[in-house]
Amino acid sequence: MSTRHPSRPTTSASTARPPTAPPRPPLKVDPTAHVADKASITGTFPISIAASAVVHPYARLTSTSGPIEIGEGAVVWERAIVGEGAAGESGDAERKTTLGRYVVIEAGASIGAGAHIGERSVVEVGAKVGVGCAISEVSSAVSSYLYNFYEYEHLLFQDIHHRVCVTFA
Asked: How far apart are CA 162 and CA 166, in angstroms?
């Protein structure tokens, strides 16, 4: 014989709430682009992926701080994060994160919201490009030999607040 305690609420399948999924952004993907099923795409601002671009499994595109535009032939590798905003920041439609044509974002690299990566540039394994920073065309952000530098040969990092734009883990 079972007894019910009035102080204990009962739960049933009809009252239990399913976990909520993160919001899905408006997504525009060229038919020739490839986005892996296991890529994480979240946010509220639009994300556009151009022709022949590739987003690998476990890559993360986050448009909660602004829109994301991935250029033709760009490649975003596993565990790379694109569009990551600063904690507690609200979104802004003007803060567009842009990966130019044929850009490569290697595994574990992080691109902050509002960053601009110039055409044919490479952000190597583990490199972090800060919020609102820019890397010029045909550049390489490497994870060794450079630590908190603004300029190094063909690398140009710019930020209107003169913050360090690239850091390395």
From this structure: 12
Contact criterion met (CB below 8 Å) for 118 and 135: yes
Select from 51, 112, 116 the least CA-distant residue to 80: 112
Distance of CA 21 to the CA centre of its chain: 18
40-81, pLDDT tens digit by residue?
Answer: 999 999 999 999 999 999 999 999 999 999 999 999 999 999
Q: Are 85 and 68 in contact (CB under 8 A)?
A: no
The closest alpha carbon to 112, from 72, 57, 161, 73, belongs to: 161
What is the chain's percent helix, strand, coil content, to nearest 5? Answer: 0, 35, 65
SS3 call for 32 = coil
CB 57 within 8 A of CB 87: no
Domain 27-168 CATH superfamily: Hexapeptide repeat proteins (2.160.10.10)
Which amino acid appears at position 132 of this protein?
G
pTM, whole model, 2 decimals? 0.73
